Amino acid sequence: MATSAIVTNRSLDNTYIEDFSADYASDALRLFIANFQQLQDSQVLDIGPVCGDNINFLAQQVKRIYVCDMFTRLDRDKRKGLQSGRVWRHLDYPAETFDGILLWDLCDRLDDREVGRLVDLCHTMIKQGGILMLSALGEQVKDVTQPVINCFVIKDDFRLYLRPQPHLHLPLYGRQNRDVLSMLAPFRPVKSFTCRNGVREFLFRRD
Hints:
It contains six helices and eleven strands. The chain has helices at 14-20, 27-34, 52-59, 70-80, 112-125, 177-183; strands at 6-7, 24-25, 43-46, 64-67, 98-104, 126-136, 150-154, 159-164, 173-174, 188-194, 200-205.
């Protein structure tokens, strides 16, 4: 996959953490949820980190919510020195199971080869017409070395705030918008947003 991933190489300062962690309204999440309003048996997969707030919120919006925390699994395998390819066995759901998948910023933590594997799995797991939501950190992260991993916590009125997960340690890859669109090529881009704190949100559909 020909993307221009950049591994960042400078430390994160406290000011940036404070500004970046501000809560923000997520138009992408609102549209993502709207896709399931008319479905009586909607199923959504959240690929982590695990968050009780998100489980409670999504349980009120969709029929079934599944959570598979790939952040924790990737971190554990890397600590043990295991080959990264083993971790994808956890996403062994049957083909066309889900109406929607939440990736959050997982792709920011994967190299191009790993992203390709993840995207292929998502394309298999999601139903025809299903929608995928992906978040990506802003352009400013190119000047930061491995900032803390955050959980995107859903609050009322589709607002998100970032809850630090300091126990997780994964590399950070900064990508431009065109690279994000390229690596999700099996899907059709639907909408994209840039939030006031720099987080970029993308919606993709499987045609």
